[in-house]
Amino acid sequence: MKIKSNYDIKPRYRKFLSQHVGLRVSEHACDREIKKRDITAPGNDCKEVNTFIQANKNDIKVVCGKGGTPKGKNLFKSNKPFPLVTCKLKSGERRPKCQYRGKKSTRYIVLGCDRGWPVHYEEGII
């Protein structure tokens, strides 16, 4: 029997961190952060919505274990709410003309997890 390693998860986890974890991201910094982190939709289009979780990666990782509740299909809902900055596209279709409006909120987060590692941000729930 072949044992699955975590090597295939690492790039997906790093992409998740880059796209969704921003301890110090402010609602006024959406344009800068999305550009700096090279976040796009497929085809180099502007991404409609991107959410940054204002927490450290270890606090987020526990959602995929004892800090979360399984929701089926590898999804886990956090047991506690997290501070978020949600950046919504206000103008532009293709990079670099993307302009965003940011909004702060506190929500429970739903993450897609693979073998205990967060690899996908699904949604925030009030």
Can you put this structure into words, describing what you see?
The protein has one domain: P-30 Protein (Roll). Strands 1, 2, 3, 4, 5 and 6 form a six-stranded antiparallel β-sheet that branches. The chain contains three helices and six strands. The mean pLDDT is 92. Helix content is 19%, strand content 39%. The longest helix has 12 residues. With 126 residues, it is α+β, with helices and mostly antiparallel strands.
Q: How many strands, what sense, and barrel or not for the largest sheet? A: 6 strands, antiparallel
CATH topology: P-30 Protein
CATH superfamily: Ribonuclease A-like domain
N-to-C order of helices and strands:
HHEHEEEEE
Share of helix, binned: 10-25%
Percent strand: 35-45%
- What is the CATH C-level name? Alpha Beta
Poorly predicted parts: none
Indicate how many domains the architecture comprises: 1
Structural class estimated from helices and strands:
alpha+beta
Tally of extended strands?
6
Task: Outline the fold blueprint.
Layout: H1 9-20, H2 30-36, E1 49-53, H3 57-61, E2 68-72, E3 75-78, E4 82-91, E5 99-114, E6 117-125
Antiparallel strand pairs: 1-4, 2-3, 3-5, 4-5, 5-6
Short structural summary:
The chain has 126 residues and is of the alpha+beta class. The chain contains three helices and six strands; from the N terminus they run ααβαβββββ.
Features:
single chain; 126 residues; alpha+beta; P-30 Protein; 3 helices; globular
